Amino acid sequence: MAIHSTWSKDRYTQVGEAIAALYVKALKDMPPDVRNALTQAERRETVAVGRTVLGTIQRNIGVADQENLLICQDTGTPVYFVDIGEHSGVNPVPLERAIREGTERATVRHPLRSSVVSPITRKNDQTNTGYRVPVIHWEFVPGRDDVQIVIVPKGSGSENMTYFRMLLPADGVQGIKRFVVESVVGSGGNPCPPVIVGVGIGGSADLCMLLAKKAIIRACGEPNPDPEVQALEEELLAAINASGLGPMGLGGMTTALAVHVEYAATHISQNPVAVNIQCWAARRARLVIAPNGDITMGF
Amino acid sequence: MTEHLVTTPLTEDAVMELHAGDIVTITGHIFGLRDATLIRMFDQGEAIPSDLMGAVCLHTAPGVRKEGDHYVKVSIGTTTSTRMNRFTAGLLGKGVKAIAGKGGLLEDSTRLLAENHAVYLGLVGGTAASETMQIEDIEEVWWSDLMPECLWKFRVRDFGPLIVGIDAYGRNLYLETKAKALEATKRLRL
Fold it and tell me: Does the N-terminal or the C-terminal CB of chain A have fewer CB atoms within 10 Å?
């Protein structure tokens, strides 16, 4: 049986166009929550080199705004998180096609640097897409009637600093804390601190890593709704910043802008933890498609 | 934190003025290169199409637009240098006096830079908008089949700020800071 869709063909075309615009918006327009966190970090910073780095970051965001330029040259791996509302009436098959085509169109039209290659041949199709890329994660939301698409053009300086370990149940939450803090601090300046630290706890190995990635798309500093998890986020943030690694790993008070933790139930014999780091240039943009077809863009 | 305005090609005297933590701004020319460029130069041993004596080499893969035969800048920034740590000896052997990028280089490169009287200059990663404005023109592009990882020659004015991350006296600010930070982390009660 074919998937029933209430969307017209035109609507998928419009979404494809909107995706092309969304990718470029994400690369140029920093989310307000990240801007705010960076401003706070600059106000707090007392180390001279840290102040230089944070001041340079602020000027760069201003230049990108004024000159309509990309914040960072790394157009990233295009990663999408799609929330499908139960009553949205969308067919995910043509939606997936629209997301892919929109990504390619933005790359060719702007033009954007194509950062995506085959891992076997290293061939670059110059489209920012390839086999199984863009990366698209789907979630299904009971009761909702809209579709929401978040793009994270994931920079590689931070993505290369990704960590995963199957800890033992006997290592407990303490083992998780140590693994997270040592992973972030041990990354030095490579992931472009001050970073947002995404932490996945529990699940299976694959789910754990996905949770770490999902954690970085949360608005910077927005706490997990579970108070115990929120306390863990605060403790990890304080510990990471106590290291003094600082902006770009050159010393200072802010190594991380926020720590976001997401968790899932796990197996009795497992204690998985994943760390996915997002650079200070934590670019993301959101598309909301209302049931009447109206498309709005935000963060 | 002394501030220096330097012009290219870099002289040995100019390099020896620079100390870890100082701030540098460059006017002149910068060569852009990255993983694939360095693999072609040193692993595949192809002849380098330009003289690199006194050069500043930047770890980058720019976004560009082609207009006729000319490449026009879209977004030019920097990438993580540690990935290309093993090519330091090769570059210094060609007369390069400064390697620029982000994230720093490792112990062996620190020693090589000191032995060859050269420095590592750290940009603030992710600040491509500013850097794109400071690059006046793309003057040459070699090995365009590696797009975007070609060998690039940029003309720059007041390019920076760059932070002297590794000086020619053997100081590596990245490794020093990271070692201290890891030490502080070990002492934490978690």
Answer: N
List the end-to-end C-alpha distance of chain B, in Å, as a whole number: 35
B84-113 pLDDT per residue, tens: 999 999 999 999 999 999 999 999 999 999
Structural contact between residues A214 and A262, judged by C-beta atoms closer than 8 angstroms: yes
Contact B129 A67 (CB under 8 A): yes
ipTM: 0.94
Q: Measured between alpha carbons, how far is residue B128 from residues A61, A239, A240, B187 in Å?
A: 10, 30, 27, 37
CB contact under 8 A, B125 and A49: no
Instruction: Give me the number of domains chain B comprises.
Output: 1
C-alpha span between A278 and A30 (Å, rounded) = 13
> What's the pLDDT tens digit per position in A224-266?
999 999 999 999 999 999 999 999 999 999 999 999 999 999 9
What are the residue boundaries of the structural domains of chain A, listed by start? 9-28+71-152+283-298, 32-61+156-278
pTM of the model: 0.95
Strand partners, A151: A80, A285
For the A9-28+71-152+283-298 domain, the top CATH level (class) is alpha beta
Q: Are the beta carbons of A192 and B102 separated by less than 8 Å?
A: yes
